[in-house]
């Protein structure tokens, strides 16, 4: 009942209440820090597991691909490489020799056909001296074509006969005869359509057609 005593009790209650408030405030400030720290630790742990997973996957991938890489590119001894390269060169040289021989044989066959045409068709028709038959107009400069082809064949044979395959150079032959070939066949091709029209006209004339038939029979 004493004012002094009542004042002292009130101050104690106030101190107790203040102490409780301070404790609760301190707790509220501390709990987020603890939770944040724990969360950060958890994220860090997840990050470390993610990196670990990637590292493990990378290692497994390398192990899986390593045998395939080794099998796809097997180590070949140098001697086997040299033997394989030599075999490739040998096959290429054999193919080149075959192509050159085919070019030469084709030119021989072509010249043989021209020989028959000149001997069995052109010359007999000229000898008959048929007034309505233009032999030169029909066959154009085919005799000049024959001469040029004979020259080409001779040059090819000279470049390949008794010459080792690696030393057979036929490109130079075609370069040297390029100009004459162009000039000669330019004339032949220019008159080709006129000669075809002329032949169709001659085949409608029975007398002239008979002369052509005799020439064809001689060729056969």
Automatic annotation (TrEMBL):
InterPro entries: DBL_dom_sf (IPR035899), DH_dom (IPR000219), Dynamin-Rho_GEF (IPR051492)
Ranges of Basic and acidic residues composition bias in the record: 50-63
A Pfam family it matches: RhoGEF
GO cellular component, one term: cytoplasm
Gene Ontology molecular function: any one: guanyl-nucleotide exchange factor activity
Residues of the DH domain: 95-220
Region (Disordered): 1-88
Cited PANTHER family: NUCLEAR FUSION PROTEIN FUS2, RHO GUANINE NUCLEOTIDE EXCHANGE FACTOR 38
Name of the protein in question: ARH38 factor
Gene: Arhgef38
């Amino acid at each position: 009942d004493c004012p002094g005593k009542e004042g002292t009790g009130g101050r104690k209650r106030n101190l107790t209440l203040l102490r409780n408030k301070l404790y609760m405030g301190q707790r509220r400030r501390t709990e987020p820090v603890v939770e944040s720290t724990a969360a950060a630790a958890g994220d860090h742990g997840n990050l470390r597991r993610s990196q670990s997973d990637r590292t493990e996957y990378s290692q497994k991938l390398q192990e899986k691909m390593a045998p395939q890489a080794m099998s796809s590119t097997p180590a070949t001894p140098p001697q086997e490489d040299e033997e394989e390269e030599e075999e490739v060169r040998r096959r290429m040289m054999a193919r080149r020799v075959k192509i050159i021989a085919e070019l030469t044989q084709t030119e021989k066959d072509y010249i043989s056909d021209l020989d028959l045409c000149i001997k069995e068709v052109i010359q007999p028709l000229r000898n008959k001296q048929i007034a309505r038959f233009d032999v030169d107009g029909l066959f154009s400069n085919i005799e000049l074509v024959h001469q040029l082809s004979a020259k080409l064949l001779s040059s090819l044979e000279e470049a390949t006969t008794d010459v080792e395959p690696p030393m057979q150079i036929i490109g130079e032959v075609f370069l040297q005869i390029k100009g004459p070939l162009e000039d000669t066949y330019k004339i032949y091709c220019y008159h080709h359509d006129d000669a075809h029209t002329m032949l169709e006209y001659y085949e409608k004339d029975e007398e002239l057609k008979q002369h052509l038939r005799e020439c064809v029979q001689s060729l056969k």
